[in-house]
Amino acid sequence: QFQLVESGGGLVQPGGSLRLSCALHGFTLDYYTIGWFRQAPGKEREGVSCINLSHGVTAYAGSVEGRFTIDRDNAKSTVILQMNSLKPEDTAVYYCAAGVGIPIQDGLGINEYDYWGQGTQVTVSS
To answer: Which of 54, 85, 100, 112 has the greatest number of beta carbons closer than 10 A?
Structure first.
């Protein structure tokens, strides 16, 4: 049974930081790319960042590059999204997703992924 469980969301002031975790259950990690996506109210879901678990190659959306960092902890079967310098426009539900054989240049595409978590709310507000 494949399962992804997000955690770490919450309320933070502008300029603050949050650390999201995606726990992976049932996956053979070497074959997967893990992506982080977000969806704000009234907007489409968009790709934020992704990582190839085998090679460690990463990609970021332009809106978060330099502020967000994605990393893996294979021993804990977890992918981390460290979010710094948060802005109100980062407010959204954040989802992690898993897919096999995704070229890193396609890693921010929603349709590339087969398995999704339930999401965690991130609110950036003063």
So the answer is: 112
Pairing of strands 18-25, 32-39: unpaired
Q: What is the DSSP string of 74-112?
A: GGGTEEEEEE-S--GGG-EEEEEEEEES--GGGTT-GGG
Local structure of residue 126 (DSSP, 8 states): -
Task: Tell me the per-residue pLDDT of 47-72, one tens digit each, with 9 for 90 and over.
Answer: 999 999 988 999 999 999 999 999 99
d(CA 74, CA 34): 12
Residue type at 83 in one-letter notation: M
CA-based torsion, 69, 94, 56, 108: positive or negative: negative
Q: How far apart are CA 21 and CA 43, in angstroms?
A: 23
DSSP class of residue 65 equals B
Residue holding tokens 């898993």?
98
- Evaluate whether 53 touches 65 at the Cβ level (below 8 Å): no
CA pseudo-torsion sign 32, 116, 66, 83: negative
